[in-house]
TrEMBL record:
Keyword Cell cycle (UniProt): no
Boundaries of every Rod shape-determining protein MreC beta-barrel core domain copy: 125-275
Keywords, ordered alphabetically: Cell shape, Coiled coil
Annotated GO CC locations: plasma membrane
Its biological purpose: Involved in formation and maintenance of cell shape.
InterPro entries: Cell/Rod_1, Cell/Rod_MreC_2, MreC, MreC_beta-barrel_core
Protein name: Cell shape-determining protein MreC
Family statement: Belongs to the MreC family.
Pfam families assigned: MreC
Source taxon at top rank: Bacteria
One record GO biological process: regulation of cell shape
Coiled coil: 69-106
Length: 293
């Protein structure tokens, strides 16, 4: 036997190299199918990936959802605050606009040439009781400002009542809607010589009761009723309201007209107290003008 074949270690080494080369070549060669060891390892790794990957995704998604909810909450809170600020500013602007309109009307009233014969005292309503809503208001002008009882109180829209009591720095005004019938007002239909008295108020209909109208007087719905000045207390020609309905009293002797107030007595802020200076030429001229109107 040749010496080469007698060396067993060398033969085993060569055989191992041949097998190794064959395995490397087999593994490098393109295959469409994996061997069962490879398939086992691949499936095992994939299974563990599925087990650990899905919970990890759920956990990550959960924390992302929490962050989204927190961000949405902060954004909603900021938007709500902005909306509240907008509503507040809008309301403030609305109130300022309303006050400006009221002040402009009051300024026009103070400059009204028809009232040039009368001294006018602008005042602000500072008190009104809910249980006497249709009866009394308190204004911020009193005796120190020349205010006296029975002076007429008006707004740019019309007559509202008279001063009942005057304190040093404030006064109590009784409204013409007082249901106690304590505020009788000499009145007339504008543009005519139909006279009568405002006596009473119907809160359910929101109308004043224009009574003692001559039964033959021709009075129609929509006509304006004004102060007549015959009571020697109020200026002549102050708007009271428009005729809404005309009926005859229960005895058939006089007519009664329901008059809707010209002024909004539920929204009284700025008023003017009128001081009549009887006997002056201007006042007499105004009375004559009222006769013609």
């Amino acid at each position: 036997m040749p010496p080469f074949f007698s060396n067993k270690k060398l033969i085993i080494l060569l055989a191992s190299l041949i097998v190794l080369v064959a395995l490397v070549g087999f593994s490098i060669k393109e295959r469409k199918q994996m061997t069962w060891p490879e398939q086992f390892v691949h499936d095992t790794v994939g299974w563990f990936q599925v087990i650990f990957n899905r919970p990890a995704q759920y956990v990550a998604g959960f924390f992302e959802t929490i962050d989204d909810i927190e961000n949405a909450y902060k954004e909603n809170k900021a938007l709500k605050a902005d909306l509240e600020d907008y509503a507040k500013v809008k309301q403030e602007n609305k109130e300022i606009k309303h006050d400006n309109q009221e002040l402009k009307k009051e300024l026009d009233l103070l400059n009204d040439p028809d009232l040039s014969a009368y001294k006018k005292h602008p005042a602000l309503v500072i008190g009104r009781s809910y249980d006497k809503w249709n009866q009394l208001v308190t204004v911020n002008k009193g005796e120190q400002d020349g205010i006296k009882p029975d002076m007429a109180v008006i707004t740019p829209d019309g007559f509202i009542g008279k001063v009942r009591k005057a304190g040093q720095f404030s006064s109590e005004v009784i409204l013409m809607t007082d249901t106690r019938n304590a505020n009788q007002i000499a009145a007339m239909v504008q543009g005519s010589r139909i006279y009568g008295m405002i006596e009473g108020y119907d809160p359910e209909k929101n109308v004043l009761l224009f009574k003692k109208i001559p039964v033959k007087a021709k009075i129609k719905k929509g006509q304006m009723v004004v102060t007549s000045g015959l009571g020697q207390i109020f200026p002549r020609g102050l708007p009271i309201g428009k005729v809404k309905k005309v009926t005859t009293d229960q005895y058939g002797l006089t007519k009664i007209a329901e008059v809707e107030p010209a002024a909004n007595l539920n929204d009284l802020t700025h008023v003017v107290i009128v001081e009549r200076e009887a006997g002056t030429p201007a006042a007499n001229n105004l009375d004559k003008k009222g006769d013609k109107s």
